């Protein structure tokens, strides 16, 4: 309480000015320092980053491209668990035009990159996946521990196990894997989650980009692939690796689009694709223990008019981490229906129930999971405006759904949970599980905020009147709830031409009189989006991932094309000949204490 009896502001920090330029900026009183960049060493023996002489061998030992999800695991037994731990980082995708000299501007709209060759494709494949790094804060400054025994690179070539109900299905079998139980690599790993038993959940999102070729209309997987936009022919991989050509290996694409579970504390462990959690364009997988002890993982399927899911384990989470090793293999996947009366229902995706029968093309639970979207269509789930992160707030029991935008929704397609046609700026839905139980079937919901510029009436934004002209944002994407139960929203899609501001982080009040008030905290350099915000357990460090710095402003017809030679910024090195480098940044409060206070 403040002295006059008014509630103390939840976010007392001094607000950052919105805007765009070539650098990153954080609210006054904070430091924001680059921790690790694309090309920095991860594994022992990794060569120094040399953008003019790249190789797949070097890249497989170096930090990958386009860092997205970031998760922090305190080192067991550490003197200060908030100053020593493992950082796990997703490497979602690659920007060839910014990575490779001489490639020039590329047309990614359905045309595989023309200038690509096998050497460049192999570098790209090694730049995908994830990294595990050991990090330590010494004298207030974070650094990567060199030659750590935990250090690991996971790429598009790393052997993985397929587990759960779809493992071994005929539709998962390929020439290289006649058993349908092992696969090389994970791709387009967007957001994710960390589990209480110490594992990293990393989510395959836009897997359609990597596959090429044209499937005949009557091919067995034609309907399945069409629903996922497969193949999208956006990358050249299929020209050099036949498994990514759907005409050569028609089932390979069924082995992508899953949630992958990885034990970061065992660098020899085999990553596992957990098929029980469904196959779609997974944004993230943020979990929480439900009242009865079962684990609930919320998941968004990031596509216009796609769905929000949750997976509920069959077993309760055990105290012994080892006992939870395969807990994500058994459980029930549900999809959300949001009704106009503010109520909602989780619809179970269980073979043999309702329309999920052989007559409708589902011969087994494997079929339901491989074609999760088609199963959810039949159940009548609510078509949402691109569901991105879905995170529960352990302090309040509420769950926040980031709906980033949907310009394809027509006014007459608006519904209560997606109330705007031509929804350019997105919104956030908040729901409360019945009985405070995340495993419950029913929930109540409302809209926390409709995003966009509140000073333009036609936009229909609903930020509180206490929100300043720097405080509003559009296109919510990732989010994080800190240890105090405060919501932090990261965005993807703000730009000089769209909103007059760069992407970044905004602190969002969700409770009490300040509900709906947003405050600008951090912003990214030109062309970048803000991913993976993640706090250490005591909120003293806030890790953020700066993805694809230097991209051109797509919405601006006058913007010059961005290339290796002429990027929109050379952040963070600012050296001639060195391209922009996606990087993880550690934000701390000057003089110590919780970030954002
Ligand atoms: Fe990879 Fe939905 O953002
Ligand atoms: Ca995202
Ligand atoms: Ca995004
Ligand atoms: Ca992205």
UniProtKB/TrEMBL annotation:
A Pfam match: PhoX
Coiled-coil region: none
Name the UniProt record assigns to this protein: dTDP-glucose 4,6-dehydratase
InterPro entries: PhoX, TAT_signal
Top-level taxon in the UniProt lineage: Bacteria
């Amino acid at each position: 309480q403040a002295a006059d009896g008014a509630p103390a502001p939840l976010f007392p920090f001094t607000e950052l000015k919105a805007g765009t330029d070539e650098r990153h900026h954080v609210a006054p009183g904070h430091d924001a320092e680059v921790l690790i960049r694309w090309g920095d060493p991860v594994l022992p023996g990794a060569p120094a980053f040399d953008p003019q002489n790249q190789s797949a061998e070097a890249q497989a030992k170096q930090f990958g491209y386009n860092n997205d999800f970031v998760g922090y695991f305190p080192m067991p037994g550490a003197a200060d668990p908030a100053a020593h731990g493992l950082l796990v980082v997703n490497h979602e995708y690659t920007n060839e035009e910014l990575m490779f000299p001489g490639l020039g501007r590329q047309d990614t709209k359905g045309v595989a990159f023309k200038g690509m060759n096998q050497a460049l494709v192999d570098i790209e494949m090694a730049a995908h996946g994830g990294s595990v790094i050991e990090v330590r804060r010494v004298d207030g400054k974070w650094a990567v521990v060199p030659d750590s025994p935990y250090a690991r690179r996971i790429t598009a070539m790393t052997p993985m196990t397929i587990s759960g109900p779809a493992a071994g299905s005929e539709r998962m079998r390929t020439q290289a894997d006649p058993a349908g139980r092992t696969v090389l690599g994970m791709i387009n790993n967007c957001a994710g989650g960390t589990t209480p038993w110490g594992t990293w959940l990393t989510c395959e999102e836009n897997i359609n980009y990597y596959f090429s070729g044209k499937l005949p209309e009557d091919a067995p997987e034609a309907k399945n692939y069409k629903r996922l936009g497969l193949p999208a022919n956006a990358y050249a991989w299929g020209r050099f690796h036949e498994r990514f050509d759907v005409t050569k290996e028609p089932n390979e694409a069924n082995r992508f689009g899953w949630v992958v579970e990885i034990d970061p504390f065992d660098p020899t462990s085999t990553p596992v694709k957990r098929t029980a959690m469904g196959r779609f364009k997974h944004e993230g997988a943020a979990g929480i223990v439900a009242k009865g002890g079962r684990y609930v993982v919320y998941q968004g399927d990031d596509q216009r008019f796609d769905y929000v899911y949750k997976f509920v384990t069959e077993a309760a989470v055990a105290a012994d981490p080892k006992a939870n090793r395969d807990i994500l293999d058994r459980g029930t996947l549900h999809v959300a229906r949001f009704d106009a009366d503010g109520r909602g229902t989780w619809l179970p995706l269980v073979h043999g129930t309702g329309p999920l029968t052989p007559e409708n093309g589902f011969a087994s639970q494997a079929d339901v999971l491989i074609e999760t979207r088609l199963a959810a269509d039949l159940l009548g789930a609510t078509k949402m405006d691109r569901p991105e992160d879905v995170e529960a707030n352990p302090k309040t029991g509420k769950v926040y759904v980031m709906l980033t935008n949907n310009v394809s929704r027509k006014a007459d397609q608006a519904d209560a949970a997606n109330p705007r046609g031509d929804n350019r700026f997105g919104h956030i839905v908040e729901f409360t599980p019945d009985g405070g139980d995340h495993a419950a079937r029913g929930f109540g919901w409302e809209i926390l905020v409709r995003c966009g510029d509140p000073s333009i009436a036609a936009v229909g934004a609903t930020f509180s009147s206490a929100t300043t002209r720097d405080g509003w944002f559009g296109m919510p994407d990732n989010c994080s709830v800190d240890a105090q139960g405060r919501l932090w929203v990261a965005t993807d899609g703000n730009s000089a031409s769209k909103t007059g501001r760069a992407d970044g982080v905004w602190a969002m009040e969700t409770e009490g009189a300040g509900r709906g008030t947003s405050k600008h905290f951090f912003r990214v350099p030109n062309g970048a989006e803000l991913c993976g915000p993640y706090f250490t357990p005591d909120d003293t460090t806030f890790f953020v991932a700066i993805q694809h710095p230097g991209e051109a402003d797509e919405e601006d017809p006058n913007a010059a094309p961005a290339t290796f030679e002429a990027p929109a910024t050379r952040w963070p090195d600012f050296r001639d000949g060195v391209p922009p480098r996606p990087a993880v940044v550690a934000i701390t409060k000057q003089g110590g204490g919780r970030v954002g206070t």
